[in-house]
Amino acid sequence: MADRRATLAALASAAVVGWCSRPWGDGPQAQIDHPAPDTPADREAVRRFREWQKANALPAVYLEPVGPALATPGGSRIGGPVWLPAGERWPTDAKGVPMTFLAQLDFAKLPTLEDYPSHGILQFFIGHDVYYGADFNGPGGGSFRVFWRPTLDGVGAMHLGKVRNDLKHGFDTNSPLEPKSVLTGYRLAGRKGTHEPTITDWRFQRDLKDIADGRGRGGVNRLVNAQLEKHLERHHLGGNPDFTQDDWRWEPKYQGYDRVLLNLWSDNTVMWGDAGQGQFLIRRADLLARDFSRVAYQWDCS
């Protein structure tokens, strides 16, 4: 894993359009600065920030890899085998390159969330290319597919992707999945909880601009660092999206993407560039309508 991360970091820094460079122009920045000594302004900023976090918290299901994926149509998983209806081919990109099967959510076997389905399957495929199918100029574009299957009735079969390791690097530089994730996959167990936004969320700049610009920021930075140490990054659906760098939703045209279909961090199952994360977001109105045709997909890394 360490070798893969180091190699991906080098590839990212060498890319003409950096994998993990920020492509969003003059949007808000969210870097953590050096904390200042504790002051009354710090304490007041922390109080307001905590109120803001709690006010914007959303129910979530945290997803934990717990072993090999089951070779059955149902079940939530990262990678591994996937069920496709009879006559449906493995999805490809515009050039005919087979996509990467990234993950599946089986809502009937996960804790229920308001607004989200109580049954049915979502399958996530991403392009097999240097950007993992993402379009860094527009998260609504790119090379990816999200399949909504209300049921798994009918004739179909299990299919398995191929490991496509780069001979030079010894792993697949066009996929975030580790080889075992492709061939076996990892079963995901769900646990219901609450997920709060943090300083990378675009609304932090909107709602607490004076703090974002520096007033009491030292206290907020110390709090956020403590939160990150206490709550290790976890895969989740629902809740708020997480970002390694900045929130691409700062542009008004993307601010309607307010619900998380899937947020995957980097671990021993998946590695987004240099230990980043990827997310699939949807507008609440589309989620309620079970319309998964306008999902946005993006990822970033450190």
TrEMBL record:
Per its UniProt record, what SUPFAM superfamilies does this chain match? Hypothetical protein YwqG
Q: What is this protein called?
A: DUF1963 domain-containing protein
Show the PANTHER family listed in the entry.
SLL5081 PROTEIN
Stored InterPro entries: DUF1963 (IPR015315), YwqG-like_sf (IPR035948)
Where is the chain membrane-spanning?
none
Superkingdom per UniProt: Bacteria
